[in-house]
Write a structure and sequence with these properties.
Blueprint (H helix, E strand, L loop, with lengths): L2 H19 L7 E5 L5 H9 L4 E4 L2 H7 L8 E4 L8 H7 L2 E5 L2 H13 L4 E6 L13 H12 L4 E7 L12 H18 L5 E3 L6 H6 L4 E4 L1 H4 L16
Parallel strand pairs: 1-2, 1-8, 2-3, 3-4, 4-5, 5-6, 6-7
Helix pairs in contact: 4-5, 6-7
Length: 238
């Protein structure tokens, strides 16, 4: 199938998952994971109605975004190194993978220098996988108030990646745990957190049923990515 057909299929599956959970389909946003995809593919995706895109690498985004339609919105969904914070604050409307207090402090510094407010999500490594980044839940709760007090950052919610499995139902307990952790964070902050970014091509339906507001879809939308030599850490959207 082509891009337009893939999008229709995904939208139908998102709507069906929302019906099963008694949710409004408008409460779930499809984020198109465009890493590895050239600008012409992004433009084609924009032409069929997509407007929110996610990139894993600052350098790729820096080269790609200026070649894409200016109306598009971009999230950073990959691991962010502190030396890339300046560019990330400039390029993205949200940074989804804030995985430490130190990174949050560096982002706050650059957001202040650029006179902007930066919405963020806090990445949680619920499965404790050594190959993935993210707070463990205990550390997240310990650092939450310090991160929330940073003047140029706005904590909008949490994000996670489930371990890969051929059975998407095996990811459901992890998604449910992230929703519970969001509730703990809201209680600690005394304010609602609107977003749960969880679920990718292989497991977005149980993620939606457990409360995802952002699903990060790459392969199921664009098809297999061009083969490139792997040089960095784990994927953040698929």
């Amino acid at each position: 199938m082509g891009l337009a057909e893939n999008l229709v299929s995904l939208q139908q599956r998102i709507e069906a998952a929302c019906r099963r959970a008694g949710r409004d389909p408008a409460s779930v946003t499809l984020l198109a994971v465009s890493k590895g995809m050239p600008p012409e593919v992004v433009r084609a995706a924009a032409d069929v109605g997509l407007s929110l895109f996610g990139e894993n690498k600052v350098q790729e985004a820096k080269a790609k975004i200026p070649l894409c339609p200016g109306r598009l919105r971009w999230h950073m969904i990959g691991h962010l190194q502190s030396n890339k914070c300046r560019d990330a604050v400039h390029l993205f409307e949200m940074i989804q993978a804030v995985d430490s207090l130190a990174l949050a402090q560096e982002l706050d510094k650059w957001a202040s220098k650029q006179a902007r407010t930066m919405p963020i999500l806090l990445e949680v490594n619920l499965a404790g996988e050594s190959t993935k980044f993210g707070f463990n839940p205990k550390q997240l709760l310990a650092d939450l108030e310090a991160i929330n007090s940073l003047p140029r950052l706005e904590v909008h919610g949490l994000m996670t990646m489930a371990p890969w499995t051929p059975d998407p139902e095996k990811a459901r307990p992890l998604f449910r745990s992230l929703r519970g952790l969001k509730g703990q964070c809201e209680e600690k902050l005394g304010a609602p957190l609107p977003h749960l970014s969880m679920g990718m091509s292989g497991d977005f339906e149980p993620a939606i049923e457990e409360g995802a507001t952002l699903v990060r879809i790459g392969t199921a939308l664009f098809g297999p990515r061009p083969k490139v030599r792997r040089t960095t850490g784990p994927e953040q959207g698929a």
